[in-house]
Write a structure and sequence with these properties.
The chain is an all-alpha fold. About 75% of the residues lie in helices and about 0% in strands. It contains 12 helices and 2 strands; from the N terminus they run βααβαααααααααα. Helix 11 (about 270-295) packs across helix 12. The longest helix has about 35 residues, at about 95-125. The termini are far apart.
Length: about 325
Protein backbone atom coordinates (compact mmCIF):
# COMPACT_ATOMS: atom_id res chain seq x y z
CA UNK A 1 0.00 0.00 0.00
CA UNK A 2 2.80 2.41 0.89
CA UNK A 3 5.99 3.15 -1.05
CA UNK A 4 9.37 2.12 0.31
CA UNK A 5 11.05 4.58 2.64
CA UNK A 6 14.68 5.31 3.20
CA UNK A 7 14.06 6.26 6.82
CA UNK A 8 14.48 4.17 9.89
CA UNK A 9 12.26 1.16 10.17
CA UNK A 10 12.14 1.31 13.96
CA UNK A 11 8.55 0.94 15.23
CA UNK A 12 6.65 3.70 16.93
CA UNK A 13 6.06 3.41 20.66
CA UNK A 14 2.54 4.10 21.88
CA UNK A 15 2.06 5.33 25.41
CA UNK A 16 -0.32 4.55 28.25
CA UNK A 17 -0.13 6.82 31.29
CA UNK A 18 3.36 8.17 32.12
CA UNK A 19 4.56 7.22 35.58
CA UNK A 20 1.95 4.48 35.97
CA UNK A 21 3.49 1.83 33.71
CA UNK A 22 3.72 -0.74 36.51
CA UNK A 23 0.09 -0.42 37.61
CA UNK A 24 -1.72 0.76 34.46
CA UNK A 25 -2.97 -2.80 33.80
CA UNK A 26 -5.63 -2.01 36.40
CA UNK A 27 -7.02 0.53 33.95
CA UNK A 28 -7.54 -2.24 31.40
CA UNK A 29 -10.71 -3.37 33.19
CA UNK A 30 -12.59 -0.03 33.08
CA UNK A 31 -11.32 0.59 29.54
CA UNK A 32 -12.51 -2.84 28.49
CA UNK A 33 -15.87 -2.10 30.13
CA UNK A 34 -16.16 1.15 28.18
CA UNK A 35 -15.39 -0.66 24.94
CA UNK A 36 -18.00 -3.30 25.76
CA UNK A 37 -20.60 -0.58 26.45
CA UNK A 38 -19.71 1.13 23.16
CA UNK A 39 -19.84 -2.07 21.11
CA UNK A 40 -22.95 -3.54 22.75
CA UNK A 41 -24.78 -0.19 22.86
CA UNK A 42 -24.20 0.67 19.21
CA UNK A 43 -24.92 -2.89 18.05
CA UNK A 44 -28.18 -2.75 20.03
CA UNK A 45 -29.17 0.49 18.29
CA UNK A 46 -28.39 -1.05 14.90
CA UNK A 47 -30.30 -4.24 15.74
CA UNK A 48 -33.48 -2.39 16.77
CA UNK A 49 -33.39 -0.11 13.73
CA UNK A 50 -32.86 -3.09 11.40
CA UNK A 51 -35.51 -5.25 13.11
CA UNK A 52 -38.32 -2.78 13.78
CA UNK A 53 -40.24 -1.54 10.76
CA UNK A 54 -41.54 1.45 12.73
CA UNK A 55 -37.94 2.74 13.04
CA UNK A 56 -37.36 2.78 9.28
CA UNK A 57 -37.52 6.58 9.11
CA UNK A 58 -34.85 9.16 8.17
CA UNK A 59 -34.06 10.03 11.80
CA UNK A 60 -33.26 6.42 12.67
CA UNK A 61 -31.40 5.72 9.44
CA UNK A 62 -29.05 8.60 10.31
CA UNK A 63 -28.80 7.27 13.86
CA UNK A 64 -27.75 3.90 12.38
CA UNK A 65 -25.01 5.71 10.42
CA UNK A 66 -23.85 7.38 13.65
CA UNK A 67 -23.69 4.01 15.41
CA UNK A 68 -21.70 2.52 12.52
CA UNK A 69 -19.10 5.29 12.71
CA UNK A 70 -18.85 4.89 16.49
CA UNK A 71 -18.33 1.15 16.02
CA UNK A 72 -15.64 1.89 13.45
CA UNK A 73 -13.74 4.19 15.81
CA UNK A 74 -13.98 1.67 18.67
CA UNK A 75 -12.84 -1.33 16.62
CA UNK A 76 -9.99 0.65 15.01
CA UNK A 77 -8.42 1.70 18.30
CA UNK A 78 -9.33 -1.26 20.52
CA UNK A 79 -6.28 -3.47 19.65
CA UNK A 80 -3.63 -0.88 20.51
CA UNK A 81 -5.39 0.63 23.54
CA UNK A 82 -6.04 -2.72 25.25
CA UNK A 83 -2.68 -4.02 24.03
CA UNK A 84 -0.94 -1.27 25.99
CA UNK A 85 -3.03 -1.35 29.14
CA UNK A 86 -3.56 -5.11 29.31
CA UNK A 87 -0.48 -6.68 27.71
CA UNK A 88 2.03 -3.80 28.05
CA UNK A 89 2.66 -4.11 24.31
CA UNK A 90 3.42 -0.62 23.04
CA UNK A 91 5.23 -1.17 19.72
CA UNK A 92 3.49 -0.59 16.39
CA UNK A 93 5.20 -0.70 13.01
CA UNK A 94 5.02 2.53 11.05
CA UNK A 95 2.84 1.10 8.26
CA UNK A 96 0.30 -0.25 10.77
CA UNK A 97 0.31 3.12 12.56
CA UNK A 98 -0.46 4.93 9.30
CA UNK A 99 -3.30 2.53 8.51
CA UNK A 100 -4.79 3.06 11.98
CA UNK A 101 -4.34 6.81 11.55
CA UNK A 102 -6.23 6.68 8.25
CA UNK A 103 -9.22 4.87 9.77
CA UNK A 104 -9.32 6.98 12.95
CA UNK A 105 -9.42 10.23 10.97
CA UNK A 106 -11.79 8.80 8.35
CA UNK A 107 -14.35 7.68 10.92
CA UNK A 108 -14.04 11.03 12.71
CA UNK A 109 -14.78 12.84 9.44
CA UNK A 110 -17.71 10.47 8.80
CA UNK A 111 -19.15 11.11 12.25
CA UNK A 112 -18.95 14.84 11.70
CA UNK A 113 -20.77 14.42 8.37
CA UNK A 114 -23.45 12.23 9.95
CA UNK A 115 -24.06 14.87 12.64
CA UNK A 116 -24.65 17.41 9.85
CA UNK A 117 -27.11 15.02 8.18
CA UNK A 118 -28.94 14.57 11.48
CA UNK A 119 -29.12 18.35 11.93
CA UNK A 120 -30.54 18.65 8.41
CA UNK A 121 -33.07 15.94 9.26
CA UNK A 122 -34.27 17.80 12.38
CA UNK A 123 -34.36 21.08 10.43
CA UNK A 124 -36.58 19.59 7.72
CA UNK A 125 -38.83 17.85 10.27
CA UNK A 126 -39.45 21.07 12.23
CA UNK A 127 -39.28 23.77 9.53
CA UNK A 128 -40.94 21.87 6.66
CA UNK A 129 -43.03 19.12 8.29
CA UNK A 130 -45.45 18.77 5.36
CA UNK A 131 -42.63 18.22 2.85
CA UNK A 132 -40.40 16.20 5.18
CA UNK A 133 -41.32 12.76 3.82
CA UNK A 134 -41.04 13.86 0.20
CA UNK A 135 -37.62 15.50 0.71
CA UNK A 136 -35.88 12.81 2.78
CA UNK A 137 -36.74 9.70 0.80
CA UNK A 138 -34.78 6.45 1.17
CA UNK A 139 -32.95 7.26 -2.06
CA UNK A 140 -31.89 10.69 -0.78
CA UNK A 141 -30.73 9.20 2.55
CA UNK A 142 -28.62 6.60 0.72
CA UNK A 143 -27.04 9.32 -1.43
CA UNK A 144 -26.27 11.42 1.67
CA UNK A 145 -24.62 8.40 3.33
CA UNK A 146 -22.57 7.69 0.19
CA UNK A 147 -21.53 11.35 -0.04
CA UNK A 148 -20.36 11.31 3.60
CA UNK A 149 -18.32 8.16 2.92
CA UNK A 150 -16.72 9.49 -0.27
CA UNK A 151 -15.89 12.86 1.26
CA UNK A 152 -14.23 11.28 4.29
CA UNK A 153 -12.18 8.88 2.15
CA UNK A 154 -11.03 11.55 -0.32
CA UNK A 155 -10.04 14.05 2.38
CA UNK A 156 -8.08 11.60 4.57
CA UNK A 157 -6.60 9.34 1.84
CA UNK A 158 -3.56 11.58 1.03
CA UNK A 159 -2.47 11.91 4.69
CA UNK A 160 -0.72 8.51 5.12
CA UNK A 161 1.13 9.00 1.81
CA UNK A 162 2.23 12.50 2.81
CA UNK A 163 3.48 11.07 6.11
CA UNK A 164 5.26 7.89 4.94
CA UNK A 165 7.83 9.95 3.00
CA UNK A 166 9.33 11.40 6.21
CA UNK A 167 12.45 10.08 7.91
CA UNK A 168 11.72 9.49 11.61
CA UNK A 169 15.12 9.89 13.24
CA UNK A 170 13.89 11.56 16.43
CA UNK A 171 12.27 9.78 19.33
CA UNK A 172 9.68 7.27 18.17
CA UNK A 173 7.56 7.80 21.29
CA UNK A 174 4.02 8.95 20.49
CA UNK A 175 1.73 10.79 22.89
CA UNK A 176 -1.29 8.48 22.77
CA UNK A 177 -2.36 4.86 22.80
CA UNK A 178 -3.34 5.09 19.11
CA UNK A 179 -1.97 6.94 16.07
CA UNK A 180 -3.02 10.47 15.12
CA UNK A 181 -1.63 12.50 12.24
CA UNK A 182 -0.69 15.55 14.30
CA UNK A 183 1.07 13.32 16.81
CA UNK A 184 3.09 11.33 14.25
CA UNK A 185 4.38 14.24 12.16
CA UNK A 186 5.93 15.97 15.18
CA UNK A 187 8.50 13.13 15.23
CA UNK A 188 9.58 13.68 11.62
CA UNK A 189 13.10 14.91 10.84
CA UNK A 190 11.95 17.01 7.91
CA UNK A 191 9.88 20.02 6.97
CA UNK A 192 6.29 19.16 7.90
CA UNK A 193 4.76 22.36 6.52
CA UNK A 194 2.83 20.55 3.75
CA UNK A 195 1.34 18.06 6.22
CA UNK A 196 0.43 20.80 8.68
CA UNK A 197 -1.25 22.92 6.02
CA UNK A 198 -3.09 19.96 4.49
CA UNK A 199 -4.18 18.74 7.93
CA UNK A 200 -5.55 22.19 8.76
CA UNK A 201 -7.35 22.43 5.40
CA UNK A 202 -8.80 18.94 5.87
CA UNK A 203 -10.13 19.83 9.32
CA UNK A 204 -11.63 23.10 8.08
CA UNK A 205 -13.19 21.39 5.04
CA UNK A 206 -14.82 18.69 7.16
CA UNK A 207 -15.37 19.59 10.79
CA UNK A 208 -15.09 23.35 10.27
CA UNK A 209 -17.75 23.52 7.55
CA UNK A 210 -19.84 20.89 9.32
CA UNK A 211 -19.99 22.93 12.52
CA UNK A 212 -21.18 25.95 10.50
CA UNK A 213 -23.90 23.88 8.80
CA UNK A 214 -25.06 22.52 12.17
CA UNK A 215 -25.16 26.04 13.63
CA UNK A 216 -27.17 27.36 10.67
CA UNK A 217 -29.59 24.41 10.96
CA UNK A 218 -30.26 25.19 14.60
CA UNK A 219 -30.73 28.88 13.88
CA UNK A 220 -33.48 27.88 11.44
CA UNK A 221 -34.90 25.39 13.97
CA UNK A 222 -34.93 28.04 16.70
CA UNK A 223 -36.72 30.51 14.44
CA UNK A 224 -39.36 27.88 13.61
CA UNK A 225 -39.79 26.91 17.27
CA UNK A 226 -40.25 30.54 18.35
CA UNK A 227 -43.12 30.90 15.86
CA UNK A 228 -45.06 28.19 17.69
CA UNK A 229 -47.68 29.83 19.87
CA UNK A 230 -47.88 27.55 22.93
CA UNK A 231 -44.98 26.90 25.30
CA UNK A 232 -45.84 23.21 25.63
CA UNK A 233 -45.71 22.71 21.87
CA UNK A 234 -42.40 24.59 21.72
CA UNK A 235 -40.93 22.36 24.41
CA UNK A 236 -42.11 19.14 22.75
CA UNK A 237 -40.85 20.24 19.34
CA UNK A 238 -37.42 21.29 20.56
CA UNK A 239 -37.08 18.21 22.79
CA UNK A 240 -36.70 16.11 19.61
CA UNK A 241 -33.33 17.86 19.12
CA UNK A 242 -31.89 17.28 22.60
CA UNK A 243 -30.26 13.94 21.77
CA UNK A 244 -28.63 15.37 18.65
CA UNK A 245 -27.39 18.48 20.48
CA UNK A 246 -25.83 16.22 23.12
CA UNK A 247 -24.14 14.10 20.42
CA UNK A 248 -22.75 17.25 18.74
CA UNK A 249 -21.33 18.60 22.01
CA UNK A 250 -19.83 15.23 22.98
CA UNK A 251 -18.07 15.06 19.61
CA UNK A 252 -16.88 18.63 19.09
CA UNK A 253 -15.82 19.65 22.62
CA UNK A 254 -13.22 16.84 23.05
CA UNK A 255 -12.12 17.35 19.42
CA UNK A 256 -11.50 21.07 19.96
CA UNK A 257 -9.78 20.38 23.28
CA UNK A 258 -7.44 17.81 21.72
CA UNK A 259 -6.60 20.14 18.78
CA UNK A 260 -5.82 23.02 21.15
CA UNK A 261 -3.57 20.81 23.28
CA UNK A 262 -1.62 19.58 20.24
CA UNK A 263 -1.14 23.04 18.75
CA UNK A 264 -0.60 25.19 21.85
CA UNK A 265 0.12 22.82 24.74
CA UNK A 266 3.49 21.40 23.69
CA UNK A 267 5.12 22.30 27.00
CA UNK A 268 2.24 21.12 29.18
CA UNK A 269 2.11 17.84 31.09
CA UNK A 270 1.91 14.67 28.96
CA UNK A 271 -1.10 13.63 31.01
CA UNK A 272 -3.30 16.37 29.49
CA UNK A 273 -3.11 15.28 25.82
CA UNK A 274 -3.43 11.61 26.87
CA UNK A 275 -6.55 12.38 28.89
CA UNK A 276 -8.05 14.49 26.08
CA UNK A 277 -7.27 11.80 23.48
CA UNK A 278 -9.00 9.09 25.51
CA UNK A 279 -12.04 11.34 26.09
CA UNK A 280 -12.18 12.11 22.36
CA UNK A 281 -11.87 8.40 21.61
CA UNK A 282 -14.32 6.85 24.05
CA UNK A 283 -16.91 9.42 25.16
CA UNK A 284 -18.98 9.67 21.91
CA UNK A 285 -19.20 5.90 21.20
CA UNK A 286 -20.12 5.18 24.82
CA UNK A 287 -22.50 8.09 25.34
CA UNK A 288 -24.41 8.23 22.05
CA UNK A 289 -26.28 4.89 22.42
CA UNK A 290 -27.08 5.72 26.06
CA UNK A 291 -28.40 9.18 25.18
CA UNK A 292 -30.50 7.96 22.26
CA UNK A 293 -31.65 4.92 24.22
CA UNK A 294 -32.92 7.11 27.06
CA UNK A 295 -34.29 10.05 25.04
CA UNK A 296 -35.85 8.11 22.15
CA UNK A 297 -39.21 6.71 23.20
CA UNK A 298 -39.41 3.98 20.55
CA UNK A 299 -35.99 2.52 21.39
CA UNK A 300 -36.57 2.85 25.15
CA UNK A 301 -39.90 1.04 24.85
CA UNK A 302 -38.36 -1.82 22.86
CA UNK A 303 -35.54 -2.25 25.38
CA UNK A 304 -37.97 -2.26 28.32
CA UNK A 305 -40.16 -4.84 26.59
CA UNK A 306 -37.22 -7.15 26.03
CA UNK A 307 -36.03 -6.66 29.62
CA UNK A 308 -39.49 -7.42 31.05
CA UNK A 309 -39.94 -10.41 28.75
CA UNK A 310 -36.55 -11.80 29.83
CA UNK A 311 -37.37 -11.23 33.50
CA UNK A 312 -40.77 -12.95 33.23
CA UNK A 313 -39.25 -15.89 31.33
CA UNK A 314 -36.55 -16.36 33.96
CA UNK A 315 -39.13 -16.27 36.77
CA UNK A 316 -41.25 -18.87 35.01
CA UNK A 317 -38.27 -21.17 34.44
CA UNK A 318 -37.27 -20.94 38.10
Amino acid sequence: MFPRRSSSSNPFLLIGIPGMEASQHWLALPLCLLYVIALVGNCTILFFIWREQSLHTPMYFFLAMLSLTDLGVSLTTLPTVLGIFWLHFSEIIIEACLIQMFFVHSFAAMESGVLVAMAFDRCMAICLPLRYASILTNSVIAKIGLLILIRSFCVVFPIPFLTIRFPFCKSHLLSHSYCLHQDVIRLACADIKVNSIYGLVAVLFTKGLDSIYILLSYIMILRAVLKITTNDARRKTFSTCISHISAVLLFYIPLIGLSVVHRFGRHSSLLIPILMANIYLLVPPVSNPIIYGIKTKQIRTKILRIFLHTKISSQRSS
